[in-house]
Design a protein that fits this description.
Elements lengths: L18 H9 L5 E2 L2 E2 H6 L9 E2 L5 E2 L23 E6 L21 H5 L6 E8 L8 E8 L4 H4 L16 H10 L1 E9 L5 E3 L7 E3 L4 E5 L18 E3 L4 E6 L5 E5 L14 H6 L47 E4 L9 E3 L7 E6 L7 E8 L2 E3 L1 E9 L14 H9 L2 E8 L4 E6 L5 E2 L4 E2 H5 L2 H6 L1 H8 L4 E2 L1 E6 L6 E5 L5 E2 L6 E2 L13 E5 L13 E8 L2 E12 L22 E10 L2 E8 L18 E5 L23 E5 L5 E7 L5 E7 L25 E7 L9
Parallel strand pairs: 11-16, 28-30
Antiparallel strand pairs: 1-2, 3-4, 5-39, 6-7, 7-8, 8-9, 8-10, 11-12, 13-14, 14-15, 15-16, 17-18, 18-20, 19-25, 20-21, 21-22, 22-32, 23-24, 26-27, 27-31, 29-30, 31-32, 33-34, 34-35, 35-36, 37-38, 38-39
């Protein structure tokens, strides 16, 4: 998340016991814990594996996978840094055409709406790959990626910056260009025999999806009064997707893009509704001022102003923002197929959406987090059990969105409560769920499921969910079902036993539209003014779908023997603000956990990590770790050397988005908002420019010179 779109206001003013307080109280009782887990929890979490070993299919013990590179020393430079024996290539930076015959990007380019609609957008973020056929080739596939937000200074560098950025009416073509720079890109990419990657221009599946692309609402919100607008009087349609941060994918072959900081593009000058207050709509000018544009067709700019104009919602756009804040499902194979906003998965500032362990005959599960300080972690459980015949069939043409409707439009959304003893409970956001202390159900308070979804955050407040330190990316070990999630940081986390404070001058969490302003530490978020963040993991209990057991996997920190450095990190692996995560399965019971960070000085961070190393990619093999009784986290001073720094990105950039090709010979990452990178006339990502360049976010492909598997010996 960039400093340009990060909303530092706290919108959760609830009084629920925060995760940091829960962790702190739990850590004070660690003498009775075993390896980061209570004895009972450790028994139930058998899927966490044996210390220092893994198991073959026949049950025989074997040495676990080990990392085959030396941890990088800290660096701060205008280039990507990779280990010895590796290369890194710039691929599809901002402004790369998707079709032939277009003008090529150049340093003096003044983009138009048409150029931006047919080329890669700005600020690459979450991404995933999709096989073209059953062969699942590693050198030719569809790449789908998000474009989270704008750098207006870079976008409009040729004209000296945007017109009327802070006051006055924005020009129509500038606004359309900015709208087209957001969203999603689908592009076929291919590797040649020399190991060089390039987009396949004119592939019929290449396309852009922007903040102007027509979409359909699905799930509880569809057809409700909460979604009625002048654009869609029946409440069934939406227009565009925005601030697409992390992502996800489905086992039936669709891409999930997630809407994070979308409230910043809307305003409501009148008295705001509770959901608008809770999520943070502006009262005057929006972040880009699109609502000020004069002209346009079919309310294309008027829709960003949610101020009611009368009694009839069909005559204005008071509900336009209620068509945002969702997980959006896209079929990457079929440009003609409708795009759906799957509203059953909740409405908030979604970071990403990740599938859980898939078991035939069991429900399909997705995990998602609300990326804001003192917000919550959620999961969605489908009503329909998984049918393996619904698995993706690359190369075949069929309705994947119908399968999506089967699993994502009907089910139960839950919010997490983390308890001090290392257990946790999923609290259902359902109409028949009793609200503690009120003698009423959520259905009696909100009237119907659609309104619960519109007010997901307030409903979660009422159930006593645990406020977290900015839940960002998640990932799942597909063999064990262990779920990892990054908690990036939280400057609004206060000392143990301090009183929570609330937004909107509220007095309690029970007030509609009120969230946490500050919250005391708890077991899973144990550090006040948490500047470094942590990664947690949990495992669902067999036979108890609403219960889980959790532990802290690793604490971010600066090196040194300080109370804050609970995992014992040193110069070779110190990190802060964990963000992107990916569990890279390398065989039965084996895998690499990749951790990406978002901790740059450009974010205003003043911690020691930001002053010693740029944002980075780290790797660790969870199965190689031993557990030490009484340790604060799984990674501790006795085993922290297993965590290694694999890549460092350029000055002022964050690193985000990650996957590897099926054969694990290429690792794809995204470099977002660099200050002076990439170099002109070269796609060598490790080359620093010789002078100031017009910066471009880009995908980077990391490969071994010998063609071997990434990360391994």
């Amino acid at each position: 998340m960039s400093k340009e779109v990060e909303d530092h206001r706290i919108h959760n003013r609830s009084g629920n016991l925060p995760f940091a307080a829960i962790v702190e109280r739990r850590l004070s009782r660690r003498s009775v814990m075993c390896g980061g887990l209570g004895l009972a929890a450790a028994t139930m979490l058998g899927g966490f594996g044996w210390p220092g070993t893994s198991r073959a299919a026949d049950g025989a013990a074997r040495a676990p996978l080990s990392l085959g590179f030396a941890s990088l020393a800290p660096r701060m430079t205008d280039a990507v840094v990779v280990p010895e024996g590796y290369v890194a290539q710039v691929l599809i930076p901002w402004g790369t055409p998707l079709v032939s015959g277009m003008a090529q990007w150049h340093p003096e380019l003044d983009p138009t709406p048409g150029f931006q609609a047919a080329s890669t957008g700005m600020h690459h973020d979450g991404m995933y790959h999709f096989a073209l056929d059953a062969s699942d080739r590693s050198d030719d596939f569809l790449l789908v990626l998000n474009h989270e937000y704008l750098d207006q200074s870079a976008l409009w560098a040729a004209r000296g910056g945007p017109t009327n950025a802070k006051q006055g009416a924005r020009p129509l073509d500038e606004a359309r260009t900015e709208i087209n720079a957001h969203g999603v890109c689908v592009v076929r990419v291919r590797r040649d025999e020399q190991g060089h990657w390039a987009p396949v221009l004119d592939d019929p599946r290449n396309r852009r999806i922007t903040t102007a692309t027509p979409m359909l609402l699905a799930g509880p919100l569809r057809g409700s009064l909460h979604a009625v607008t002048a654009y869609s009087p029946q409440g069934t349609q939406a227009r565009g997707t925005n601030n697409n941060c992390a992502c996800g994918y489905t086992p039936w072959g669709t891409y999930l893009t997630c809407e994070e900081n979308w409230p910043e593009i809307f305003i409501n000058r009148a008295e705001q509704e509770p959901d608008q207050l809770r999520l943070g709509l502006a009262e005057s000018r929006s972040i880009y001022g699109w609502e000020t544009v004069e002209g346009g067709v079919d309310g294309e700019f008027e829709r960003f102003d949610n101020t009611p104009r009368g009694d009839d919602p069909r005559a204005d756009y008071r509900n336009e923002a209620r068509t945002y804040g969702y997980v959006v499902e896209i079929d990457p194979y079929d440009p003609e197929r409708a795009i759906y906003k799957r509203t059953a998965l909740g409405r908030f500032r979604h970071e990403g959406c990740w599938p859980g362990k898939l078991v035939a005959g069991q429900p399909v599960v997705f995990y998602t987090g609300h990326d804001a300080r003192n917000e919550y972690i959620y999961k969605f459980v489908s009503r329909a059990p998984w049918d393996p015949s619904d698995a993706n069939r690359p190369g075949e043409h069929y309705d994947r969105q119908a399968i999506g409707a089967k699993y994502m439009d009907h089910g139960t959304l839950y919010v997490a409560r983390f308890d001090e003893d290392g257990s946790g409970e999923w609290l259902p956001l359902a109409e028949d769920t009793p609200v503690p202390g009120q003698g009423r159900t959520l259905g009696e308070i909100y009237g119907d499921l659609a309104r619960i979804i519109v007010n997901t955050c307030d409903a979660a407040d009422l159930l006593g969910a645990t406020p977290m330190d900015r839940p960002e990316w998640g990932t799942v070990d597909p063999s064990s079902g262990e779920v990892y999630m990054s908690l990036t940081n939280n400057s609004k986390r206060t000392e143990a036993d301090s009183a929570a404070s609330f937004t909107q001058e509220g007095e309690s969490i029970g007030t509609p539209g009120v969230g946490y302003a500050t919250a005391p530490v708890n077991a899973a978020n144990p550090r006040p003014d948490n500047d470094h963040g942590q990664v947690i993991r949990w495992l669902e209990r067999d036979g108890e779908p609403e219960r889980f057991d959790w532990e802290i996997f690793v604490f971010g920190a600066a090196p040194g023997e300080t109370a804050d450095n609970r995992s014992g990190l040193d110069d070779a692996n110190a990190f802060a603000s964990p963000d992107g995560l990916w569990y890279d399965q390398r065989g039965e019971g084996e895998g690499i956990l990749w951790i990406q960070t978002d901790n740059g000085i450009d974010k205003g961070r003043d911690n020691a990590v930001a002053e010693m190393v740029n944002d980075q990619v780290l790797a660790i093999v969870p199965g190689a770790l031993s557990r030490r009784e009484g340790a604060a986290s799984v990674v501790d001073p006795s085993n922290q050397a297993e965590l290694k720094r694999f890549a460092i990105v350029p000055n002022q950039a964050e690193v985000t988005g990650i996957f590897a090709t099926p054969d694990r010979t290429a690792l794809f990452i995204n470099v977002q908002h660099p200050g002076n990178w990439p170099a002109y006339d070269s796609d060598d990502a490790t080359l620093a420019p010789s002078a100031q360049v017009r910066p471009r976010s880009s995908t980077v492909v990391i490969q071994r010179r010998d063609g071997g598997r990434i990360g391994e010996a």
